[in-house]
Amino acid sequence: MNTRKVAFYTLGCKLNFSETSAIGRQFEERGFQKVAFEEAADIYVINTCSVTDHADRKCRKVVKEALKHNPDAFVTIVGCYAQLKPQEIAEIPGVHAVLGAAEKFQLVDILAGFEKPAGGKGQVYASPISEATEFHAAHSFGDRTRTFLKVQDGCDYSCSFCTIPLARGKSRSDSVQSVVERVQKLAGTGVQEIVLTGVNLGDFGLQGPDRERREDFGDLVRALDEVEGINRFRISSCEPNLLTDEIIRFVAGSQRFMPHFHIPLQSGSDKILGLMRRRYRRALYASRVALIKEVMPHACIGVDVIVGFPGETEEDFLETYYFLNELDISYFHVFPYSERANTLAPNLPGRVHDGERHRRTTMLRSLSEKKKRYFYEQHLGLETEVLFEDDVTNGQMEGFTPNYIRVTAKYDPLLVGERKRLRLTNVNAQGHMEAEELGIEVFQH
């Protein structure tokens, strides 16, 4: 009997990638062969996102592409969009099963023989989000350099624009001991760098059926710093009110935790932060950035921003623009506000029309490019360590410094997974850094 082939496609965040990888390993443990998405697989699993715009259109497009590769394939949809709109997704032509947040990690057991439902409509397996109470460990795995390690899931916050609590449920976490054990196993595989991920990463510590707060994120960071065999840890997105001074100072003194933070801001206007129901104001945010730069002058700081939120006037937007311009930050991700069903924001007065959202988005993205180039140029001439990744495009490979400067190099298989001591020499036309080794510029275009 031929081994059945399964392929995956992931939309969205690093957390989704870690979960897709974990589901993929479940298939492989059952004897399935994991193949690339563009191959003719027997089963396609599409992991969806609901955060960015056009979730429905993206889902439909990926389903259509899967069926081009194999019109007879079984297509399964999981992820945040699957939890929020299961019945709608089940109506998409070619979709055979939709699994919610509480079911996706039992996919292989629930679908068993992967038999297509009668009647042409996909079968829905999606419990109410209140039933998604168990923490499921996950990590990405596919190269020797970096893995995304899920340590927390869900969110107890109630930001007025966000559907994530509806899609993933309440905050819940792994234990420090369990995470340490997983990291020790990963160390034995040759992984060089681990990125800690979660929906609300800084809220780590709620555990068990009663979600008792047994530990906190600081406990996890301190424990992982003691694990041998992993050279680099990165903290992915962390809320500014949860990124404590203690954690910042600990990272500053650590040899393993990299001087790189991604801290969502969303708005530089206290008025808009209030309407968003965020749990901090701009003064706290500025204090976090100031402390990071005080104790780690070369640290990279990334920011998330939403523009065009209901009630955001031109004055409010310019307040955000000038606030970001004055902050000592390295880059930011800019998102035009998009309405989400079952959230509070669409009911707020002062809708910003689409053209204005686009204009403000363009302005901030242009500012981000300037901030990033300035950050890179500050490091010209610096000797640093670059970890190269197994990701090659047009004969070029990339690596990252501890503070997340992207370095471009000509592909060399001997560099993959290697940490090289280099001198940063030039920012190229693509906005990537170039470097030299031993005084000879061998890594340039």
Task: Give a description of the structure.
The chain is α/β, with parallel strands linked by helices and 445 residues long. The chain folds into three domains: 5-131, Rossmann fold (3-Layer(aba) Sandwich); 138-377, pyruvate-formate lyase- activating enzyme, CATH 3.80.30; 383-436, OB fold (Dihydrolipoamide Acetyltransferase, E2P). 31% of the residues lie in helices and 24% in strands. The protein is built from 13 helices and 22 strands. It has a six-stranded parallel β-sheet with strand order 2-1-3-4-5-6, sandwiched between helices. The longest helix has 24 residues, at 354-377. Its cofactor is [4Fe-4S] cluster. InterPro entries: Elp3/MiaA/NifB-like_rSAM (IPR006638), Methylthiotransferase (IPR005839), Methylthiotransferase_CS (IPR020612), Methylthiotransferase_N (IPR013848), Methylthiotransferase_N_sf (IPR038135), MiaB-like_bact (IPR006467), rSAM (IPR007197), rSAM_horseshoe (IPR023404). Residues 141-377 form the Radical SAM core domain. Residues 4-116 form the MTTase N-terminal domain.
